[in-house]
Amino acid sequence: MATATKIKKSSRKKSKVKLQPLGEGVVIERDESLDTTAGGIVLPDSAQDKPARGKVLAIGNGKLLKDGTRGPMQVKIGDAVLFSSYSPQEVSVGEDEFLLLKESDILAVID
């Protein structure tokens, strides 16, 4: 019996477009979803859940406070984070897909 395998793109080309979020915005690259269950059953794309975790690619300059200063961001580029699956705005740049969301929509940083 043959099993289907998903080919991962190991040599992803860098996009020429740079996304720089404003204010408390964060750009995240979503982790890939699992294509098999723990029991080894291969899942089609339509049955896969989109993971609510990813890697921070870019951050804004912080939330504007009442006194006119910017508050520091709590996440940094490269952090692995958990976020609400309903909050991000999906953006495609060429073949790459990114998520835009506010820092307050991030639930936790994964160590």
Total of DSSP H or I helical runs spanning 4+ residues: 0
- The assigned structural class equals mainly beta
Looking at the structure, the CATH topology of the domain at 49-110 is 10 Kd Chaperonin, Protein Cpn10, Chain O
Categorize the overall geometry: elongated
What is the percent of helical residues? under 10%
Give helix and strand order, one letter per element, not per position.
Answer: EEEEEE
Give the strand tally: 6
What is the second-level CATH architecture of the domain at 49-110? Roll
The residue-averaged pLDDT reads 79
As laid out across the biggest beta sheet, the strand order is 4-5-1-2-3-6
Per CATH, the class of the domain at 49-110 reads: Mainly Beta
Q: What does the model show?
A:
The chain has a domain at 49-110: Roll (10 Kd Chaperonin, Protein Cpn10, Chain O), CATH 2.30.33.40. Helix content is 0%, strand content 31%. The protein has no helices and 6 strands. It has a 6-stranded antiparallel sheet with strand order 4-5-1-2-3-6, with no helix packed on it. The N and C termini lie far apart (40 Å). The model is unreliable at 1-12 (pLDDT under 50).
